[in-house]
Write a structure and sequence with these properties.
The complex is a heterodimer. By secondary structure, chain A is an all-alpha fold. In chain A, 75% of the residues lie in helices and 0% in strands. Classes of the chains: A mainly alpha, B mainly alpha.
Chain lengths: 292, 307
């Protein structure tokens, strides 16, 4: 946390590279890598405004006529609106359900002693090492048997439970280290029961951890491909990544439309990242690192 | 008061066994039903033949025997190790270099991190679409660039040449996660105690000496952690890149474990009948390899820590 405060909060008082030549070289190198990351996206955005012929003949040139209707056609023919809606429902649903379940689970582990506590904990942490692909085939069979395969609620619930071990681990550590017990004791003396303590004290005071975890889980869910593709019966439950994968198989020759579809799907991610860069970077890295 | 007369069962003096049970019921119940049970069942499936419909047919070790004769399994595992090689010898060290350089500059680092980290938050599937535009041999970004600087002989058919295709589907994933390593290392570098660096400076150490004798040794812990993350995450390879760039081809040389598992489970995009028993066996192989690697890297980490 402190390291991030230093990076994002304050400016450093010393310039470390005094030699102008060295500084120029360092900047040139860093900017070159930034361009390698970003120029292809700009290039594809332009390709989306050209005709296919122009893409073939003058790949680097600006479009002769800016064909903005490519974006409209792509949006309609590729069903991007529906995929965006599904992405929102899936990511928000899975993230909020996952956070609720993990908070419910972490509270008893952080505060009480009960039978089988350590055995359950060791088991949960061991399951955490299991790759996601391990459960997928029997899960499909199970959901088919009970008639819920390929429905959005089933996909959300199944995906959300998969994150329980890690999220519980993260929240338990936060609750144990950060939330003072005196508050709960005072509430209990005032007659609060377990549920009231949980809702009035534990959840509000866990907000920072829930936010970090929420961002990590949301970005992961938004980008999920494997699980969504295999848990869908047809394209009606496809999220953006699944829809894009499907699109690339179909529109293999309409390059300008594929390019437009790319940019339309990319813009929401870009906006979220611009607005919350600091939180997203922090959420993604703390999330993954604590997971080791 | 009650706590004095009764042995204190609960640390905080409130809550009941029933309450604890109710709290754990949904999360642990859901986890058991949708994760533990299917994962264990998957092991059982791997000893059976199953087409997705009808009955399971017990076949003993047959799936595992056919796995040893399946060239796609061999290719996928080799590509997993290729990926690991690229990650260990390019992604992690290059991430460190970028982080170190970022820590040396004052202005513009926030904007640069934005561009470095951008690919990490974009989904593989979208980036695979982007890389199709990069790799296209006639008008793709890469070859157009190479031709424009006169390196025509390097403008190759990246995705249809069997020697290049396995690397071509791995490079995008390696590129994508560089920024993640940058942020990890940058946070660690900025967390280093400034006093030590100041002391080294006063003793007359130049920039390189500071880096080699002070910064690098103090960052060993983070480096090991980044390596562990990278090793565990790289074996299965990506799904979107092989799926959307090469479909595993040409001549099945660009299969990764993720892609092959996906192919085996989802027959609708592949070829005909499902072989879910065999798919479960490949899944188990993936799990076994990741477990072995995790165990090895943990030992390695312990060894480093005790040094």
């Amino acid at each position: 946390m402190t390291t991030f405060a230093r990076r994002w909060g304050t400016t450093r008082d010393i310039s470390i590279l005094r030699n102008r030549m060295t500084r120029g070289a360092v900047y040139a190198f860093l900017i070159a890598w930034a361009l390698i990351n970003f120029l292809p996206i700009v290039w594809v955005a332009l390709a989306g405004l050209k005709t296919d012929i122009e893409i073939f003949n003058q790949p680097f040139a600006l479009p002769e006529q800016w064909k903005f209707e490519n974006y409209r056609i792509a949006y309609q023919t590729a069903h991007i609106g529906r995929y965006l809606g599904n992405s929102a429902v899936f990511s928000i649903g899975a993230t909020s359900l996952g956070l609720c379940l993990a908070a419910l689970c972490a509270f008893p582990f952080a505060r009480f002693n009960f039978r089988l506590k350590s055995a359950l904990w060791v088991f949960l942490m061991a399951m955490f090492l299991m790759p996601a692909s391990m459960r997928i085939i029997p899960l499909i069979v199970f959901l088919m048997r009970i008639g819920l395969y390929g429905t959005m609620p089933a996909i959300i619930v199944a995906y959300a439970t998969g994150g329980i071990p890690f999220s519980t681990f993260f929240l338990r550590a936060f609750m144990e280290s950060t939330i003072p017990r005196e508050l709960e004791e005072a509430a209990v003396i005032d007659g609060a029961n377990m549920l009231q303590v949980f809702i009035r004290i534990i959840v509000p005071l866990s907000a920072p951890a829930l936010a970090t975890l929420g961002i990590f889980n949301f970005v992961t869910a938004w980008n999920e491909l494997f699980f969504v593709l295999l848990m869908s019966r047809d394209t009606s439950t496809f999220t953006i990544p699944a829809g894009v994968a499907n699109l690339s198989a179909k529109m293999i020759t309409q390059h300008s439309l594929v390019a437009s579809a790319f940019i339309i799907s990319f813009i929401p991610v870009l906006i979220v990242f611009i607005l919350g860069q600091r939180q997203v970077v922090k959420g993604m890295t703390t999330g993954a690192v604590k997971g080791v | 008061m009650r706590a004095l007369t009764k042995p204190r069962r609960l640390r905080t003096g409130y809550g009941s066994n029933l309450g604890i049970f109710l709290f754990l019921l949904l999360p642990l119940g859901g986890y058991a039903l949708l994760n533990v049970y299917p994962s264990l069942l998957s092991v059982y499936y791997s000893f059976n033949d199953y087409s997705g419909f009808g009955q399971l047919e017990f076949v003993g070790l047959r799936n595992f025997i056919s796995m040893t004769e399946d060239p796609r399994v061999r290719t996928a595992v080799i590509n997993g190790f290729r990926n690991m090689f690229l990650v260990l010898f390019f992604q992690v060290p290059f991430g460190f270099v970028l982080a170190f350089l970022l820590s040396r500059i004052v202005r513009g680092s926030k904007a640069l991190i934005f561009f470095f980290f951008l690919p990490v938050v974009i989904s593989e599937a979208l980036l695979a679409l982007l890389w199709r535009f990069v790799y296209n041999s006639d008008w793709g970004l890469l070859n157009t660039f190479l031709r424009s600087v006169g390196l025509n002989f390097l403008a190759l058919k990246w995705l249809s040449n069997p020697k290049l295709a396995p690397w071509a589907v791995l490079v995008p994933g390696v590129w994508q996660w560089v920024g993640f390593n940058v942020v990890l290392f940058l946070a660690a570098i900025e967390g280093l105690p400034q006093e030590v660096l100041e002391a080294a400076k006063i003793d007359g150490a130049n920039g390189w000496q500071q880096l080699y004798h002070v910064t690098l040794p103090m960052l060993r812990g983070v480096y090991v952690m980044a390596t562990i993350l990278a090793i565990n995450g790289s074996l299965a390879g990506g799904l979107a890149y092989p799926l959307m760039l090469t479909q595993g081809g040409p001549f099945q040389v660009s299969y990764t474990l993720s892609f092959y598992i996906y192919r085996l489970i989802a027959p609708r995009w592949g070829s005909g009948v499902a072989h879910w028993g065999y798919a479960a066996a490949v899944v188990l192989l993936n799990f076994a390899l990741v477990s072995i690697l995790s165990a090895l890297t943990w030992r390695f980490r312990r060894g480093l820590a005790s040094e």
